[in-house]
Amino acid sequence: MQRDATVEAMELVHVDDPDDPRLDDYRSLTDVALRSVTEPASGLYIAESAKVIARACAAGHRPRSVMVQQRWVDGVRGILDGAAVPVYVVPDEVAESVTGFAVHRGALASMHRPELPQVAELVRAARLILVLEDVGDHTNVGAAFRAAAGLGADAVLVSPRCADPLYRRSVRVSMGTVFQVPWTRIGEWGAAVAELHASGFDIAALALADDAMDLREYAPRRPERVALVLGSEGHGLSRHALEAADTVVTIPMAGGVDSLNVASAAAVALWALKT
After folding, report:
1. Beta bridge partners of 248
2. What angle do CA 49, 136, 195 make, to 5 degrees?
3. How far is CA 8 from CA 27, 49, 69, 86, 172, in A?
4. Domain match, 135 and 61 both
5. What is the pLDDT of residues 63-122, one digit of tens each?
6. What contacts 239, CB < 8 A, 6 or more positions away?
7. Between vectors from CA 247 to CA 244 and to CA 248, what angle results, nearest 5°?
8. Which ranges of 100-188 would DSSP assign to H, the alpha helix?
9. Do 218 and 87 belong together in one domain?
10. Contact yes or no for 170/138 (Cβ under 8 A)
């Protein structure tokens, strides 16, 4: 190990041993394992690539450390801007050995998970929000966040069993918009519905149903505040979500296709509902 002198607060440390305990945050940990890390209390997530790390830091998220290959050090230095964060500079083979995959994007940061806001606080000024119930695919979650950012949703709520928006794949697919769109996790449906109704939201469930309203009819007379709820790819919305909805809305389809991918459906509905 060799330590570089630097006038910045950022601490550059060369690590050549893949078993060095300082790299444990990056050591083949699953998303569940990272979330359950007890120190720090709120857990961690991994930001992958200089661009994602920059967006996370710009959103106020705090890095605990960075693992970077030598050729990417200058880019990381500009992102951290002198912050007192250890930067572990490793050979390519060490990065791959530690993480279990080829690290092509140069840098990984172990980030402190921010404390999530309460639902009432998050939606206080919102007029259009997206609610994801049990969407288990990280790619779909990331794409839904990208749609929310690009089409003007004010916030995203995710259910307890929904895939993590801060998982590496979710962040990557979202193009970093998970750091841009305010979001939080809700509790079980009963409490969440009460909070949304107390805040004046019409709960619009996007689903296939015989009595569903065509999105083309719902959009022109949409209530002032709408919570658009979408479910998982395989099973759609749960019975509890459908029973809690004030309106069931469907996207009219053609060509013998009954529905869209959940992220595509979110994009279509958000575009129709934005004001």
Report:
1. 205
2. 100
3. 27, 22, 19, 11, 29
4. no
5. 999 999 888 888 888 888 667 899 999 999 998 899 887 776 778 999 999 999 999 999
6. none
7. 95
8. 119-122, 138-150, 168-173
9. no
10. yes
